[in-house]
Specification:
The complex is a heterodimer of chains A (322) and B (280). Chain A is of the alpha/beta class. Chain A is built from eleven helices and 14 strands. Chain A has helices at 12-23, 60-73, 93-112, 152-167, 191-195, 216-228, 245-251, 261-275, 281-284, 297-303, 314-321, and strands at 3-6, 30-34, 50-54, 76-81, 118-124, 137-138, 174-180, 182-183, 200-204, 210-214, 233-237, 241-244, 255-259, 293-294. In chain A, helix 1 (12-23) links the parallel strand 1 and strand 2. The model of chain A has no long low-confidence stretch (mean pLDDT 92). Chain B has 280 residues and is of the alpha/beta class. The N and C termini of chain B lie far apart (41 Å). The mean pLDDT of chain B is 93. In chain B, helix 3 crosses helix 4 (89-101) and helix 8 (175-183) crosses helix 9 (250-274). In chain B, the strands form two sheets. In chain B, strands 1, 2, 3, 4, 5, 6, 9 and 10 form an eight-stranded mixed beta sheet that branches. Chain B has a two-stranded antiparallel sheet with strand order 7-8. Chain B is 38% helix and 15% strand. The chains are: A alpha/beta (322), B alpha/beta (280).
Chain lengths: 322, 280
């Protein structure tokens, strides 16, 4: 297998992925791209098989320079991409450019590229619409969250996901969209991780939905399987941990305090302003009421993906170390 | 939020004899990793549910069960019964009866109307006991896993039917038959006698603004101590007559559903003829 281009290479998942790709002798060259200067981008190097490039992929010119410069020279065959902006509080045109326009441009230029044959896009479980009258297990054809009052963080991800899906089967390159469950780890844009950073977690009174969470190891493994597979399509990537919200809070060593749903949005907005938290209740309102789990049957049968690594829960770790 | 598992465990142990508790908590289920199945069911809550319903089942409604050995011990199965009583007590009695009568224990998965998911406290508690929202995706997945579904094809019009229409099946929906044909599941018709007199319904108001389809006005503020008689019919195996692809044939589905409805009505007629009285 020839070279792989990894965008967002300086995020925790990106770093793990790059490290894993380098360890795979079947991969030719890894071209890692991130917003940081090279000297503080990746804590490891591999002179013969890893190239790091600092680039602002929200600018079309930068994408063109990347693809028709180093990517072409290194014979990149696969592009792995994800929305670039994780902060849920931010909004506006610049954020949209990073999440949606970068994806559109990268895909468009990849389709015309002389060496790129495969485009793997990491999407999110958050693109799905969650309501009480919908199935608990969401298949890939489940409704997407196209509600007009959806926060930009989700709207951008739905739009970018649809942008990639719309080109599937329409060009010479093979496209894969992985809708990945929430990765409960720092630096991954996880809303739940941010939610659990405070000792007291306010939850909607009278509800305790089931959640599905994925570890970073499984995200990386799913991406690697998507690179190796010759298939294209949309795949749900569930994690190994399926549990109620209250149990997740307990296993993280936090206290769950039920509160009327009406006031939660205001309370969390105030907390976000005062303490700088990224957690937005309006983004999580529905999934804090209704269970919504990814159905990973398609990924299992086609990509041969099954979740293997659970989350390292702080409470469990503490108990096992005693 | 819901009741923490250790609290539920303690409560269930107090409410049930030890051997029953052990039997219920050792039930085979699709554990998704933390002791819950993907729909939120937890065996300890199954035991708690059985413990909470026990006084009602044994002492208040004095349930009598007939033909529970007709429930297959494994494989995708649908229990299809008549629905009535203003409050879903019939569902609770049927659920408890199946849990108590089957060996090895089969936990029926009651299919609830969509509005149940919106009810605070009720929805998580129901989910822990095995109740599942009535979406196509959910029921398909359960049948694929070989589970036992509990469906009331009459739906809300059944539970809120006027007293004068007791033991007359309301519009018998066909979804259960379609599912049975698609998944080659057996259908066990269930006739529940007693529930239709527990809380006579005087009038029904449409209250969608409350998050519920209707608000019934019963003649009594609480269910009367009627005696429940639960009759299980012979399982109907549609797999012998229909291929899975026949689920797309409206005529085949309607015919299968009518067959189930007729079987349920026959069980009700027999049940009514052999009982000594509403409270006896």
């Amino acid at each position: 297998m020839s070279g792989v281009l990894v965008t967002r290479a300086t995020t925790p998942i990106g770093e793990r992925l790059v490290r894993s790709l380098i360890a795979d002798e079947h991969i030719g060259h890894v071209l890692a791209v991130g917003p940081h200067p090279a000297h503080r981008a990746l804590p490891f190097s591999h002179p013969s098989r890893l190239t790091y490039l600092q680039s602002d992929l929200s600018r079309p010119r930068a994408i063109r320079k990347l693809l028709y410069g180093p990517a072409r020279d290194l014979g990149i065959e696969t592009v792995i991409h994800a929305p670039l902006h994780d902060a849920a509080k931010d909004s506006g045109r610049r954020v949209r450019a990073e999440n949606v326009e970068s994806t559109r441009e990268l895909l468009r230029l990849s389709e015309e590229h002389p060496t790129i044959q495969r485009f793997v896009y990491r999407s999110y479980a958050a693109v799905y619409r969650v309501r009480g009258d919908q199935p608990t297990l969401l298949e890939e054809d489940h409704s997407l969250n196209l509600s007009p009052d959806t926060p930009q963080w989700i709207r951008d991800r739905v739009e970018a996901d649809l942008t990639v899906c719309a080109r599937m089967g329409m060009s010479s390159i093979k496209t894969v969209v992985l809708r990945v469950a929430e990765c409960l780890a720092p630096g991954t844009g996880s809303q739940l991780y941010d939610f659990l950073q405070f000792p007291v977690c306010l939850t909607p009174m009278g509800f305790d939905p089931m959640l599905n969470l994925i570890s970073m190891q499984d995200v990386v493994r799913a991406l690697e399987l998507a690179i190796r597979s010759g298939e294209q399509g949309v795949f749900n990537i569930p994690g190994k941990d399926t549990l109620p919200l209250s149990t997740a809070i307990l296993k993280w060593g936090r206290i769950s305090v039920p509160a009327p749903s009406l006031g939660l949005s205001t309370l969390y907005r105030a907390r976000s302003r005062l303490l700088g938290s990224q957690f937005r209740y309006d983004m999580n309102h529905w999934r804090f009421h209704y269970s919504a789990l990814l159905d990973g049957h398609r990924a299992k049968s086609i990509l041969k993906y099954t979740p293997e690594h659970g989350i390292e829960w702080p409470v469990g770790r503490r108990a096992s170390s005693q | 939020m819901s009741i923490p598992v250790p609290v539920a465990k303690r409560l269930a142990r107090k409410l049930l004899p030890e051997e029953v508790y052990e039997r219920l908590t050792s039930v085979q289920f699709n554990d998704a990793g933390h002791g819950y199945d993907p729909f939120g069911m937890h065996p300890v809550f199954v035991a708690l549910g059985a413990g909470l319903v026990r006084p009602w089942y044994e002492d208040y409604f004095r349930v009598k069960s007939y033909g529970a050995d007709n429930i297959p011990s494994e494989g995708p199965t649908i229990l299809a019964g008549n629905h009535s009583g203003t409050l879903p007590v019939d569902g609770a009695m049927l659920w408890t009866d199946v849990v108590r009568q089957t060996n090895p224990v089969r936990v029926p998965r009651p299919i609830a109307d969509h509005f149940v998911a919106n009810l605070p406290y009720v929805s998580p508690l129901f989910a822990r006991g095995g109740v599942v929202g009535g979406s196509r995706g959910n029921v398909r997945r359960l049948l694929d896993n070989g589970e036992l579904l509990m469906i009331f094809p009459e739906g809300v019009p059944g539970i809120t039917k006027p007293f004068k229409d007791r033991y007359k099946l309301q519009e018998w929906r066909v979804g259960h038959a379609e599912l049975a044909i698609r998944h080659q599941a057996k259908v066990v018709p269930v006739g529940i006698v007693g529930g239709e007199e527990q809380m006579p319904n005087l009038h029904t108001f449409a209250v969608k603004w409350l998050g519920m389809p209707v608000l019934p006005i019963p003649a009594t503020p609480f269910p009367l101590p009627v005696r429940y008689h639960i009759h299980y019919g012979e399982p109907i195996d549609f797999g012998e007559r229909y291929a899975p692809s026949d689920c797309h044939d409206p005529a085949a589905v309607a015919e299968a559903a009518a067959e189930v409805g007729t079987a349920v009505q026959a069980l009700l007629d027999v049940g009514l003829s052999i009982r000594d009285g509403v409270f006896a």
